[in-house]
Amino acid sequence: MSGKLVPLLALAWLGALASGETQCGRLDERLMYTTNEKTEPSENPWVGLLLEELPKTYRNTLCSVVIINELHVLTTATCVKRFKNRGADMNAVAMLGVWDENTETDDDLQCNEKGYCVPGPSLIKVTEIKVHPQSDRDTGDNDLAILRLEKRIEWTHWIEPICLQGSDEPESLVHRNLHYSGFNHDDSRKGKGLSMTVSRQKCKQLTSASILPPENQVCAYPVKRTKFYPGSPLMDVNVERDVPHNFYLVALLVRSVDAGQATTQIYQDVRPSRSWIMENSQLK
């Protein structure tokens, strides 16, 4: 598809969000300048978890999902490999509005140390999975999947979508200090951090790899070495009139690589796939 159609698709996508009466990518500027590695319960409300439904319980797949509109979430193609059955009885479930992984859906509240509380998470079954048509198992490139939900998401202050596109984006992602958020292996609560993007050549050096990373993947050097789940979003900020306005999605975490004293995050760049995402996540 021609790149000229991306702005038109973006307008249609934003119009669909507007009809749902919610803002995408909501941010609180005061929370952007802290050294806190844990989010507030309602911070980054587009990050959820992918669960596998079992006969009497749910299994955490240790993968994040990102809400993009009322009926769709985004994750990596690798995260959905376990779901062999893509039919009506598929056992994939999106857990949304979750701040603490240990909170059950029938719990009344999730609260932080300051006594700030939000309702327990919501579970919505996945009815369809669309893997990127150019997903490459050999190189790992185009590691993206769109998950359609059984019912529309009910927007709240702790369940909202992220923006898919920025208003004035830089051409290159190299040497950008970007935000990421999601769940990790060190704490059950949703975390966040900053990561500096690097060139593909630097990525090869940091990961001690024999070849360059795939063309549509981005490498970043995080401030902390905490390993986040695949599917965690890498985000940039829209600035309007010199004020941070909202977050928009840049990439999804694919994996983390430890080599020597460095941990490098490998992300799937979503920008080249925006037309595919918007076409396959229409509200119909």
From TrEMBL:
<dbReference type="InterPro" id="IPR051487">
    <property type="entry name" value="Ser/Thr_Proteases_Immune/Dev"/>
</dbReference>
<keyword id="KW-1015">Disulfide bond</keyword>
<dbReference type="Pfam" id="PF00089">
    <property type="entry name" value="Trypsin"/>
</dbReference>
<dbReference type="InterPro" id="IPR009003">
    <property type="entry name" value="Peptidase_S1_PA"/>
</dbReference>
<dbReference type="GO" id="GO:0006508">
    <property type="term" value="P:proteolysis"/>
</dbReference>
<dbReference type="InterPro" id="IPR001254">
    <property type="entry name" value="Trypsin_dom"/>
</dbReference>
<dbReference type="InterPro" id="IPR043504">
    <property type="entry name" value="Peptidase_S1_PA_chymotrypsin"/>
</dbReference>
<dbReference type="GO" id="GO:0004252">
    <property type="term" value="F:serine-type endopeptidase activity"/>
</dbReference>
<feature type="domain" description="Peptidase S1">
    <location>
        <begin position="17"/>
        <end position="282"/>
    </location>
</feature>
<keyword id="KW-0378">Hydrolase</keyword>
<feature type="signal peptide">
    <location>
        <begin position="1"/>
        <end position="20"/>
    </location>
</feature>
<comment type="similarity">
    <text>Belongs to the peptidase S1 family. CLIP subfamily.</text>
</comment>
<keyword id="KW-0732">Signal</keyword>
<protein>
    <recommendedName>
        <fullName>Peptidase S1 domain-containing protein</fullName>
    </recommendedName>
</protein>
